[in-house]
Amino acid sequence: MKRDNSERLFAEAQKYLPGGVSSPVRAFKAVGANPLFITRGHGARLTDADGNELIDYVCSWGPLILGHCHHEVISALRDALERGTSFGAPTELELELARMISDAIPSIEMMRFVSSGTEAAMSAIRLARAFTGRDKMIKFAGCYHGHSDGLLARAGSGIATLGIADSPGVPSSYAEHTLVLPYNDIQAVEQVFERRAGEIAAVIVEPVAGNMGVVLPGPGFLEDLRRLTARAGSLLIFDEVITGFRLGYGGFQNSCGIPPDLTCLGKVIGGGLPIGAYGGRRDVIEMVSPSGPVYQAGTLSGNPLATTAGIQTLRILGRPGTYEHLEASASHLADGILTAATDTGLRVRLNRVGSMLTVFFTPEPVTDYDSARQSDLSMYGRVFRHLLARGVYWPPAQFEATFVSTAHDADDIDLTVAAFQEAFRSLVSG
Fold first, then answer.
1. Dist. CA 306–CA 146, nearest whole Å
2. Minimal CA–CA distance to 291: which of 425, 109, 136, 151?
3. How high is the pLDDT of residue 147?
4. Domain containing 270 — which CATH number?
5. pLDDT of residue 287
6. What percent of the chain has pLDDT over 90?
7. Which alpha helices (DSSP H) does 40-171 contain, by range?
């Protein structure tokens, strides 16, 4: 694979951009490589600056559930572009998208559009604190809710540790109101509520974790979070920025039958353009300005391009058979990877739900951040580099989800499985 142009562009980018990128994981540092610079995408394929064609399983980190440049989305965007890119004023488009989301996710009675998942989570936390009059919040180690100061906290020792900032520049006073617990450990949550029930404004959780790799909730975990928060007068926030409309039409909450008080959305609802939203119970959302005292604003929130792409994407996703097709493709891919591992004697764990999956290089079950960290990262890097050389663009970090789109066909999956077979054989042979 030629990389001359990408290497040249990366060298120059490092003069102007920190690490040569606009978001850390794009730098490929976790997999021992330099990033490819992408020039175009079509269907399930990317083309880089050197003309290499790649089967894409990153899908812009999830939102391109229809693949790149879906003709109906592009056609709708062309029409929208001719009418204007941003007005900073209400449009019927944001109303239509809001109506579609509320119809699809019954717990979202009202919502506010923002421009990113980070904004959605940050705003939902502020709102929860205002509504309850409390300061403390619970998050789970390995769950990422954006880079706002109060959410950049990690777990320390003990059952619940006051948040320790994960980044310089975050005052300890910001993170200290965040209690970080192990994902899937309901006993830890119960103990914290016993000690601090009157202090906790909210529990925020990815109902299916996608930022420590894909990790599914254990039996009863989400149900118990709903029970504990309701009993304590705290709010339950589902961060469905990744899972919303990815695992079914609506949120994962529809599948598990557990309605949260607030939901954060992003990714798919913009069809690949920047957008986010937070919504939920009417009595909570009505506290947001100008209806209530909780201030939050954004000039580009609900902009006509992102809402147009989102409306068209949701229309297509709502057609019969769409999610069945995604499930079949993802199942085909997962089965092929596991068969390749078995054939070579390599012990891996593959976690999958719908069109999201992660391959962990560990023989043990992966149920939380600590067990995810047992995966052999050097082995993941070797497999990533092998796949890339054979035209498969896999997530450049162990702790990111892999995404399948409606554009991936059987040939794409078969080529990918063949690349995994070669990669696994190379690992075993040394």
1. 20
2. 109
3. 82
4. 3.40.640.10
5. 98
6. 90
7. 71-83, 92-104, 117-132
Catalytic residue among 57, 139, 261, 267: 267
As a whole number of Å, the CA-based R_g of the chain is 21
**Is-catalytic flag, 267?**
yes
Q: In total, how many domains does the chain have?
A: 2
Tens-place pLDDT, residues 51-71: 999 999 999 999 999 999 999
> 154 pLDDT band (50/70/90 cuts)?
low
The answer to whether the CB of 154 falls within 8 A of the CB of 180 is yes
Q: What is the DSSP letter of 280?
A: E
Q: Domain range spanning residue 301? A: 71-317
Instruction: Write down the catalytic residue from 56, 136, 139, 144.
Output: 144
Catalytic residue among 56, 239, 261, 368: 239
Q: 359 forms bridges with which residues in the sheet?
A: 350
Tell me the residue length of the chain.
430
- Tell me the backbone φ, ψ of residue 350, rounded to 5 degrees: -120, 115
Would you state the torsion angle of the CA atoms of residues 207, 213, 214, 220, taken in this order, to the nearest 10 degrees? Answer: -50
In a shared domain, residues 161 and 304: yes
Examine the domain organization and report whether 217 and 138 are in the same domain.
Answer: yes
Q: Which two tokens stand for residue 297?
A: 């604003």
Sign of the torsion angle spanned by Cα atoms 76, 77, 81, 87: positive
pTM attached to this predicted model: 0.95
Residue 156 has pLDDT above 90, yes or no: no
DSSP state of 390: T
In this structure, are 409 and 337 located in the same domain?
yes
